[in-house]
Amino acid sequence: xxxxxxxxxxxxxxxxxxxxxxxxxxxxxxxxxxxxxxxxxxxxxxxxxxxxxxxxxxxxxxxxxxxxxxxxxxxxxxxxxxxxxxxxxxxxxxxxxxxxxxxxxxxxxxxxxxxxxxxxxxxxxxxxxxxxxxxxxxxxxxxxxxxxxxxxxxxxxxxxxxxxxxxxxxxxxxxxxxxxxxxxxxxxxxxxxxxxxxxxxxxxxxxxxxxxxxxxxxxxxxxxxxxxxxxxxxxxxxxxxxxxxxxxxxxxxxxxxxxxxxxxxxxxxxxxxxxxxxxxxxxxxxxxxxxxxxxxxxxxxxxxxxxxxxxxxxxxxxxxxxxxxxxxxxxxxxxxxxxxxxxxxxxxxxxxxxxxxxxxxxxxxxxxxxxxxxxxxxxxxxxxxxxxxxxxxxxxxxxxxxxxxxxxxxxxxxxxxxxxxxxxxxxxxxxxxxxxxxxxxxxxxxxxxxxxxxxxxxxxxxxxxxxxxxxxxxxxxxxxxxxxx
Length: 485
What we know:
It holds the Pfam family Na_H_antiporter. With about 475 residues, this protein is an all-alpha fold. Helix content is about 75%, strand content about 0%.
């Protein structure tokens, strides 16, 4: 008991120092390392800031072994995502080797009009994500192909990534199959389908506005498209791979598994295995070319397909642009992403354990007098939690728990809280460069978050619209008042 009595709650200064340190160090990382800041510098910034928080915790009477347990617990939250990341790395490797991704790119170059490409990419990802309830799976399959198509069309990969992420998160947000769409109403105390219908008031205008912006960008960029280059790229794809509609079967199998609610890790792992089988069945010429000189056919298949799982594929065509398009994947390609996720969640776990996050929320809540300011505070807390803890689930659960009683006390329907949690917690996660969602999207789409975040129009518009609705009182559902005798 004496040890417990010695522990002090953090002051606002205590809570602010690690966050300010992190912001300053991340700014320095970007200044000195630019696009490479996510490949080590950001991780060091997170660990240094965590060290500062630990020193403050020791000053306030906390024991190191308790903080260490909190760090281990924080890291453990990422292990499910890590398994999915490794499976996705293998999937990209085998789907490149099998011709699945090249086939999607090949047909995409034939049918997608450059003027409508960005909007079409957003719609395609929205439909797929809504069907399967996973923005991550959508980005790793349709998104990867769309990035390749954009490069073939001479379009901007950063805008394409913004369109992919906008569509993927729109679909994820309104899908009853999505984990976050089920989590938010569970935390707030609302009903799932009522929650989805209520979200449409902010979600539908946001995605429509985003589509208009993508159409404008598409028509403004069409002059840069080189039809001759497209034809050449299509011909080179056909030279390297056996292009056939049969190569799309691994995609159909994966989407079917997702629709049947098979968990993400086994579904993606099965997709990777199917890709390996398809590579063996349809891409023997390519496998022989990629194998070591003098290898017999059986050895070549074993080595090349096995390598695709853990280290991806490297294809040399004589065309640097095409090499980048067709090379990549493998578990090893996800190691830096895993490193960043573990560092970010460790930092967030320490701040949550020491009570620093709660300190910020209590300060914000004391200033939220009106309904508009309460919703704005919830949005700010969700975004801040995404920044500090680097995890969208924590950004839904923690603010939901902290604000639930306040929403009830003010006579607001639980739907208002559940919608706000999704409008801010789910949607803004890929906008924070060190958040697990942004790290994942960057690792899969191979576009730096600092480049694509400006084009994630849906993800920006949605939380802003939620705050505007709060202040003008539009579509803010209140609890029915009880009639007294």
